Amino acid sequence: MIAVREQSGIRAGRRHARARRPLGENYNGVLLPQDQRDRFEIVLVSPRNPLNIGAVARAMANFGFVHLSVVAPFEPHWREAKSAVGASKVLQNAKRAERLVEALADCAFVVGTGSLGRRKPEQPVVPLPELAALIQKQMGHGERIALVFGSEKRGLSRDDLAHCHVVTAIPTDPLQPSMNLGQAVAVCLYEITTRMGESAQAATWGQEAPVPATTSELELLASVIEETMYAAKYSPAAMRQANRHDLDLLLRRIALTDRDAARILGFFRRMLWQLKR
Questions:
Q1: Under a CB-based contact definition with an 8 Å cutoff, are residues 54 and 48 in contact?
Q2: Residue 209 falls within a domain, yes or no?
Q3: For 87, which of 16, 57, 115, 227 could close a Cys bridge (C-beta 3.0–4.6 Å)?
Q4: Does 154 lie in the same domain as 116?
């Protein structure tokens, strides 16, 4: 009887010790290393409500992400968001851009988000649970990753999505498909944070992977190709905008490396020079 009581006492003591151990001691180990978090850019396109921008900043701070870009915000006083409790530094350091391509300039992999019920996406659709593994593969050379969220009213436009390599969506009930902007960012960052650690072992290490072209490199290439097409009278001027949209999609679909983009750029510059002569 005494031995039983002693063993019970030992087990109770162990349970008590575990209960007193801080929960965050191991739990927060699932957060990404800071060097990986620093390579993410959270981009908001034309947000309408400064409170939502503040909620996004707070969600970013919860998971340790610090780089926020706001494209053409609807509210001129967007930095005065009231709900950024504990995330004032994220908001103060946020960058403002007039065009989406400016915010994405140094990003080599761009993920668009939104509801798939409004429009048929022209890019590959990646289920949110599978997004982390795909992002992990894109980070071999220190490339920057962008997560792009549209306005609360309309989401990302067709032209916005043309600058994205893939599209992902949060599964929601058809009766209420839309989600608050801050909540959407929090869900996406949670999925990426918790799953990237799981996919890290599946990534290929020790092999030199090609360096993907950044958005600024693709934008320059697209502009020169567009100008060459126009000089060659490829199509009527009325089709120029539609052709540029298709070109933006194509350049992301074929996943050019930085060397590929530079070489193709040289080809088209030479052709353009000949055409202008």
A1: no
A2: no
A3: 57
A4: yes
